Amino acid sequence: MSFIDFIFYIFAAMLIVAALGVITARNPVHSVLLLVLAFFASSALWILLEAEFLAIVLVLVYVGAVMVLFLFVVMMLDINVEQMRSGFVRYLPIGALVALVLAAQMIWIVGAVGPDILGDESLSQSVRHGADYSNTKELGRLLYTDYVLPFEIAAVILLVAIVAAISLTLRRRPFTKYQTPANQVKVKRNDRLKIMKMDAEAKE
């Protein structure tokens, strides 16, 4: 076993343990912190796969922004842990079924590059690139050429989700003063300005 393989197994085991801790921890704050650890382990695996851009984005975007926001929200909310955990056993079979399906899909996909892990390079389908190869440039080329339609569909779905979340959380308060841009655009001079004629006063 080489040093790279040893590092891979270490971070893979860390990722599995952290992922299991996310769904089994009783404290929501601990679940969020374990998810941060899972993201760090995933970024280390991306670096081992020579996908440095994805590893950096995973740390900067998810760990540095999204998970910090999740942590603040979880710490600010008054969550009833007992009520939240009451349905854990009831939904456990469905969760186990979904986990088995995801595991089968990952085994099926990883099976294409399995010979490379076993050391048989003749059966491997992975492609080796030179030192000047940029996976960031290649990722951008694939997203905006071969996968541009799924990329745009995902962007539209995220936009719809953002609009739906804003609409669901919007609350109209009757005593709150707010401006309507349409009424501001339609305003005329006579609606806001009134000219009054006054007699001039004589100076003494």
What does this entry look like structurally?
- It is a single chain.
- Among the domains are: 7-79, NADH-ubiquinone/plastoquinone oxidoreductase chain 6, subunit NuoJ (Four Helix Bundle (Hemerythrin (Met), subunit A)), CATH 1.20.120; 134-170.
- The protein is 69% helix and 0% strand.
- It contains 10 helices and no strands.
- The longest helix is centred in the first third of the chain and has 25 residues, at 52-76.
- The protein is elongated, with a radius of gyration of 28 Å.
- The protein starts with a helix and ends in a 12-residue tail after the last helix.
- Residues 117-124 have low confidence and may be disordered.
Question: In CATH terms, what is the fold-level topology of the domain at 7-79?
Answer: Four Helix Bundle (Hemerythrin (Met), subunit A)
CATH architectural arrangement of the domain at 7-79: Up-down Bundle
Alpha-carbon distance between the two ends = 109 Å
Average per-residue pLDDT, rounded, comes to 79
CATH class of the domain at 7-79: Mainly Alpha
Q: How many distinct beta strands?
A: 0
**What share of the residues lie within helices?**
55-70%
Q: What's the name of the CATH homologous superfamily of the domain at 7-79? A: NADH-ubiquinone/plastoquinone oxidoreductase chain 6, subunit NuoJ
Number of helices: 10
Indicate the low-confidence ranges by residue numbers. 117-124
Please outline the major beta sheet.
Answer: none
User: Would you list the SSEs in sequence order as H and E?
Assistant: HHHHHHHHHH
